[in-house]
Amino acid sequence: MDTAIAAPDPGSDGRPRLRLHIPAHHPAPGERPDFSYVPRLPAGAVERPDIAVPAQETHRLAYSLIRVLDDDGAARGAWDPKLDPEELRRGLRAMMLTRAYDARMYRAQRQGKTSFYMQCTGEEAIGVAQAFALAPDDMAFPTYRQQGILIARGWPLVDMMCQVYSNACDRLKGRQMPIMYSAREASFFSIAGNLGIQYPQAVGWAMASAYKGDHRIAAAWIGEGATAEADFHHALTFASVYRAPVVLNVVNNQWAISSHQEIAGGEAATFAARAIGFGLASLRVDGNDFLAVYAATRWAAERARANHGATLVELFTYRAASHSTSDDPSRYRPQDEWQNWPYGDPIERLSRHLTGLGEWSPERHKQLEGELADEVREAAREAERFGTLDSGPTFSAKTMFEDVYKEMPWHLKRQRQEFGV
Q1: How does strand 218-223 pair with strand 311-316?
Q2: Residues 132-186: pLDDT tens digits?
Q3: Quick one: which of 412, 199, 191, 145 has its CA closest to 313?
Q4: Which of 30, 25, 26, 24 is CA-nearest to residue 335?
Q5: 178 upstream amide cis, omega within 30 of 0
Q6: In this structure, are residues 106 and 134 in contact, taking their beta carbons and an 8 Å threshold?
Q7: Which of 387, 388, 377 has its CA nearest to residue 113?
Q8: Angle at 316 between CA 276 and CA 157, to 5 degrees
Q9: CA 226 to the chain's CA centroid
Q10: 131 touches 153 (CB < 8 A)
Q11: Which helix (H) or strand (E) segment is 201 a member of?
Q12: Which residues is 249 bridged to in the sheet?
């Protein structure tokens, strides 16, 4: 990418004219995909510091890219977590199940069974590998596209589907948009549509956990576009000052709806580099590499657990699907761009790695795809027994007054009476 700055043109009075820099739009529909800005770093090339090093010693990693799996599927370098084949197969299965679940729910939305859906296609290694690397009771503060966390933690698909359908078995009683899950028993904090707010909530929760002498850490996720929100910077300040035991993840999937990551500040610096000004540790990771994501998350979690403070982790990935079912990505990017992402597909890469170890095969992969499709189909049939958004049954309107206050205040009681419920 050409970053040369042209000399300013002199004005009528001889003084140079100012110019506003506006990042050039990424290749438009019909143009060839251009990933010249993507770092081309070999697997295994990045050093792995001790978890106790001062944060400043990690800052050079903000401008690198932690990779473990090479182009042939072999694991390289110091970041290789050396997981046993059974653990790798569990991770592959969870990623494939997440993709199968997404595909089923996407079709359900197109059939009118729900109003809205968001897939995490191409980003499955993030939610799944990070769930594997964290303890089961570490508190997750996700944004959307982390459904893999719930699936990796064994949360029932039927429960997730009922939330998407807002049906009679939706534990949230239809109050949340589809895909904004909440599962306290899985240590999965409620997803919110107000982007960025999970960061200060996660930092505050982690501070409270440390203040009480608990053993649990927190982890939060945000998209690269939402790093422009004030909540992001507030959270980093508190995380730095109080050394909160939290892992702060930035999922840089290149697109904040239709705005490319350069508009969010990715042209001038990496998103991992945001940590430098706050004195936090920083890592930048190939988000499509299951082993790298696991290793970096485990490093950041161990650092937090050892009271060395928070780590900002940029997960460098690509949003293969549309932003949501309300989005048409063909209007702002080349239609085949996702097929040209230099770091490939996370499921294919882990499958290739296992095959290279002699622990997997294309035949077993295809068989598992069919089994998981059947599993998701059966879960969908079970969930639809309790209704869908278009066919009901739905919760009574009176439930909007419940589950907010321990004791309902007088003005809500009056409103409910006026409403006649």
Answers
A1: unpaired
A2: 999 999 999 999 999 999 999 999 999 999 999 999 999 999 999 999 999 999 9
A3: 199
A4: 30
A5: no
A6: no
A7: 388
A8: 120
A9: 12
A10: yes
A11: helix 198-211
A12: 221, 313
Q: How far apart are CA 278 and CA 213, in angstroms?
A: 25
Q: Supply the angle between the helices 198-211 and 230-242 in degrees, to the nearest 10.
A: 20
Closest residue by Cα to residue 73 from 346, 294, 315, 364: 346
Residue 248 carries which side chain, given as an amino acid letter?
L
Say which amino acid occupies 255: W
**For residue 411, what are the contacts with CB-CB under 8 A and spacing of at least 6?**
none
Q: Are strands 259-260 and 255-256 parallel, antiparallel or unpaired?
A: antiparallel
Q: Is the peptide bond before 393 cis (omega within 30 degrees of 0)?
A: yes
Structure token digits, residue 217: 């850490």
Please name the residue that has the structure tokens 């909530």. Answer: 201
Give the span between the Cα atoms of 270 and 276, in whole angstroms. 11
Rounded CA separation 406/387 (Å): 29
**What CA–CA distances, in Å, run from 336 to 29, 32, 33, 96, 135?**
9, 9, 8, 22, 38
Alpha helices in 45-197 (DSSP H): 85-110, 124-133, 147-152, 157-165
Strand (E) or helix (H) holding 221:
strand 218-223
- pLDDT single digits (tens) 8-26: 666 678 889 999 999 887 7
